[in-house]
Amino acid sequence: MIKKGFICCYSLSFLLLCGCAEPKVLDKVGLITTMGFDIGKNGSFLGTLVGLKIDTNSQKDVVILDSESLSIRGIRSNADNQTSKRLTSGQLRVILYGEELLKNGKIRIAPILTSDPAISDMTYIAMVDGRARDLLHVKSSHIPDIGTHIYRLMDQNTKSKMMPLSTIHEVLHDHYIIGKDPVLPILSKLDNNGVVYKGVAIFKGGKLVGKLNTEQSFYIMLINDKYKSGTKDIIIKSDSSKLKGGQGLTNKTVASLDSIRSRSNIKLINKEKLEYEIEIKLSGRMLEINSPIDIGNPKNMKLIEKEIKKSMKKDIEQLISFCQSKNSDVFGFGDIYRSSVRHSNLTEEKWYKMYKNAKVNVKVDFVVIRTGLND
Amino acid sequence: MKVQYQPKQQYLLNTFLLFFIFHAMQVGIGIQAFERIIFSEAKQDAWISVVLAGIFSHVVVYIMIKTLQINGTSDIYGIQITVYGKWIGKILNCFFIFYCLLAFMIILKNYIEVLQTWIFPTVPTWLFSVSILLLVIYGFTGGIRVIVGVCFFSFILSIWMLGLIGYPLRYSELNHLLPIMETNIVSIIKGTHKMTLTIIGFEILYVVYPFLKEKDKVQKFAHLGIAATNILYLLLMLLSIIYFSPGQLEKTIWPSLTLFKIIKLPFIERIEYVIITFWLLIILPNLLLYLWAAIQGVKRTFGKKSKWVLLIFILFIFIPSLFFNSRININRLNHYFSIIAFYIVFCYPFILYALSLIRKKLTSTMEKMQ
Amino acid sequence: MFFKKKKFTKEKAEKQAKNENLIPTSRELMSAEFKKRLQHSADILENEVGNSGITLFSIGNLIDKTMLHRDIIEPIISQSFDSIQVIMEHLSVGEIRKTDHMDTVVQSVLDGSVVIYLEGNLFVLLAHIPARLGRALSFALNESQVVGPQVAFTESLMINLGLIRNYIKDSNLSVENLVVGSRSNKSVAIVSLNGIASQQMVGIVRKRIQNLKIDAILDSSQLAQLIEDNSLTIFPQLALTERPDRICDWLLKGKLAIIVDGSSLVIGSPQSFVEFFQTLEDSNVNWQIGSFLRLLRVSALFLSVFFTAIYVACLTFHYEVIPQTLLITLTESRARVPFPPIIEAFLLEFVIELLREAGARLPTKVGQTMGIVGGIVIGTAAVQAGFTSNILIIIIALAALGSFVTPSYTMGNVIRILRFPLIILAGFWGFYGIMYGFCFLLIHLLRQSSLGSPFLAPFYPPRFEDWKDSLIRLPFSVTYKRPDQTRPEDEYKYDYKKAKDHN
After folding, report:
1. What's the mean pLDDT in B190-213?
2. In the listed set A167, A192, A225, which residue is the last one of a domain according to the structure?
3. A131 and A250 share a domain?
4. Is the ipTM of this complex over 0.85?
5. Which of A176, A177, A340 is nearest residue B179 as measured by Cβ atoms?
6. Contact B38, B189 (CB under 8 A)
7. How far off is chain B from C320, nearest CA to CA, in Å?
8. In chain A, how many domains are there?
9. Relative to the CA of C473, which of A11, A250, C46, C498 has its CA 20 to 30 Å away?
């Protein structure tokens, strides 16, 4: 019995000594938090890697490495030549693509990255207006660490539903499904060296075909997602005299909605002629409206609701026709077609042909639940 | 050798433990990857294949228990000797022993591959192989009660993983399931066939049966165990279909593990790293019971001491486990094994049942005539 | 012929032995024999009582002198006797017996008896008047608890038995006396409740104690190690306690208590793993609070065993799992540490163990100061010097705290030791190593047993009835059964159906 124990002990310690796994000690590796990709000369990639800033108090700059390579993975190994710590992508939070690269449309956006098990499925992907490298080289006193800053910016905006969720998983999910195209948020460099969320990029296949502003991206999320809380200013385009704006600085009528809850449903109502119906149910608090209307009056309230519905409907219809003109199916109409028509045998090409001529009816239902503390 | 086999009182197990034995045996390495394989055959109706395979496994287990009941307290090694006679019986026993060892190796190899792909790409195979085999030897020498204990704890201690299913569910789209029954029947049946590697494990009943205390409750707990596993498989299949998009699912090698990649807890991110290492506890009962079944077979067929047999078997597993390291080779190995397993687990029980029924009829008429 | 001769010599030898064993008839011979047998020790007491012809032999410091004078010498000093039987009638000592064996005489003298010798008699009287060596009853210091009795066992077997009898006034309480050690000759008592305790287990314990071949045991903790099922494992399989109420609780559950004379710790057996994390206080407070305390202790166990190992594994291999918010703090504190995490963790664990050991060896007050000052000074200095990261200090302190929560000192030690192999495994194989260690421990625990009953009871083999009083404690109205682990002869504590009607 004792002998057996000794044999076990010996073999275990032998194993331990011979077979130590390759360590990646936290402070010996360079943690990349953000990667930016641009198109380079002669078909190469320009990569910009941002490391984690460890000492938040020091004035030292964040490690930003520029490298060039023919493959995406090669960028990292080329960058290794410039650092004292071996670079690892296990803490990668954000991947940025330059506009030119996506316009090119020849690269598959996310698939290349997911075969590396170290990269999390929750990594955000975004597009940069201009070059990713320029954005990552932004220097500003209120941004100590550009990588972390962009991550927090995206995280915050995604959680408050200002930005569409564009994690690797989501993008891959939409990329690999026939009849739906991914969207990516657009980040842009501010003049005074800041980062701003500017809108949403829409794709056809893997190719950038258009950009939407934040107003429009709100509607994309309204249709694709379920809202539990959100904020939005709605510009009411109304002819009603009661709703004349002009109390504020602008002469547009603006209603500010808050705690928006929504539910949307897309139905295929005509399979042959390809006709869809989008039904959106929306409710929220209205905290502010810049018109002299008495919101304590239920009649006026009805009017406001009606007008908001109307302007929303108009906006959504515009958005859809814009997407159709760009041939980008961001709402997943194709997937709905596939799931409601048996033996559709949908292919990408077939769908894009059909999509252009699809008719979409929009129904918006909006209720103001309360108006905050004032009546 | 004696055909009837009555283990000593202290080795007997409560019959309800069969629930845990079945669950622990079925859930092993197949569960990590089955969604993709079934999906590539049956598309969004893959869940129907899973249900069908589940129903079929219930039928097979029913037949297995009937076979065992005809033959009194005996195991497959005894039954084969009675049915086929001494020589053919012994050869078939060897086949079953070999099958158990092969299953052992498949599980070991697949798990090591997962470990190497996800976490430790540079650690050599032999290291994992030796370390796991040492653990298996230690558990095996504890006897059947310890082995079943590992089954039990492997079930109890891994329940928490079910709670994590809620996370991917948030990002799921029910649309992917529609339209139901679009795939043709042949593809669905093909998918069912592909479930073999995932669903096997209940053939251990053939060996463990004499060790169960109350024989009349075997049906109940066997079916409960299989039902629990089937529900788990169905859940995972449905979840994978609605979480992944079709193209994505076809490209993901281990969907069940990738499902967990989305989870982010406040104190720990990338929970799949924890889960993959935790999987050691889930495959441990598989390894222990298959090895035990093989060694039990040698003991019953040839009456050899288990100590040397254990060493030989361990070497027999260890040396081949060093080869077949590439994904393609492992896939090929899995493929061949699933063919063997299909015939042994899903087809053979019917033959054995028919033969032992005929034999019984014959002997009873012979007795009557005498 | 040959046989006859052999038989003859055997008989002769026996006779001779018998002669040697007999009480000598003359006083001088008796005195000489007595002294010879006790190695002419200086503490031998020999007094002739007046002119009654009686001589008293004893070891001076083992007997109660006042009793000797009041109860033995005074009644007989002024009289003369011709028979030993008459003397016996005159004495008022409670425990007195007659013997004609010299061996018995010496043995009981060592146990605190006085030999009353009357010249010319073949028998002597042995009056048991032991001196009270030892202390009075005191507080239970090592297993203190807020709610419940405060008394602890002492070193005297008799007092300890009395304490138990005080709690359980049941005629079924059986005490079986055995003697252990060829030199120490310790009295060992197996206490059990007849009709509840499994006689098979009493048999196992009796057999194990009787079969012991050892010269001396000095404490019950040594006896516990000797009669354990598997002495190679690090886990204790028998529990030691200094609380009589705890022992009585165990006795009522059908367990056995083993009391060793001269030891203030009593062995309770059989014992399961989870019971090392229970105290009687859990039953004394409300069941919700009791359950909470038990869960707290078990989580402390996991924290204590795995926390440092997880830190090492995360920092060495799995930096991916660290959340972003924690990442910056961790890297910042690790940035100046020159060692790999495994060495860093070992260094600090070593310091903590040193402090603990130093605290235990020093007098109480100095020890406490030492612990606090040492902890703060060394901890702060180590961080400032860049030897360790301050997060590791928090983790190690938490882990140490966790090991102190365990009510059983023996199990607490095990938990402290278990950390080290796990840290090594984590440092070499990361999470896989931790899981490997966990699986090994699981199999190891599954293989253990305590007096033949499984160590992981009631979890495995699963006895769902007993889960009610394991990791949690449900109210008494639900826990009407005795645990299956002790295989009690009477399974029910009370008739729960009747109790339901009346309460």
Report:
1. 90
2. A225
3. no
4. yes
5. A340
6. no
7. 7
8. 2
9. C498
